[in-house]
Specification:
It contains three helices and five strands. The chain is α/β, with parallel strands linked by helices. The protein has one domain: Hypothetical Protein Ychn, Chain: A, CATH 3.40.1260.10.
């Protein structure tokens, strides 16, 4: 069988994007968000996890004037329009930073590290930023 004989059109993969870094100071958080939007635009099954300092990407009321960067946290509200509805936050990371789901710009499902590990094992692709 040649590669031309394989029809991959319409194949949907389960992509999980894991955000572990603070939102500003590097390009990782913003580029991670762009990867999520691209995967969703190609109609893949996309889920997004926020853990460690990545939970700060979702924090309400970010003031970015001091770092001279645009606050991109409102963009997370647009994910629903791309059918990205699977947003997870690691419980331990949220608690360690004194945050609760009410402090975040979008609704999330809070899962323990063990629950996230199980969910990650079910994915076709896991990407960490």
């Amino acid at each position: 069988m040649q590669d031309d004989d394989i029809n991959t059109e319409g194949v949907v993969k389960k992509f999980m994007f894991v955000n572990r870094r603070a939102p500003y100071g590097t390009v990782y958080a913003l580029e991670g968000l762009e990867m999520v939007l691209i995967a969703a635009a190609f109609e893949q099954d996309v889920s997004v996890v926020f853990m460690d300092d990545g939970v700060y990407q979702l924090k309400k009321g970010q003031d970015t004037k001091a770092v001279n960067m645009k606050n991109f946290s409102p963009t997370f509200r647009a994910l629903d329009g791309y059918d990205v509805e699977k947003l997870y936050v690691e419980k331990e990371s949220l608690e360690a930073r004194g945050l609760s789901p009410a402090d975040l710009v979008v609704p999330v499902e809070v899962l323990s590290a063990d629950e996230l590990g199980t969910l990650m094992a079910e994915q076709d692709v896991v990407m960490t930023a």
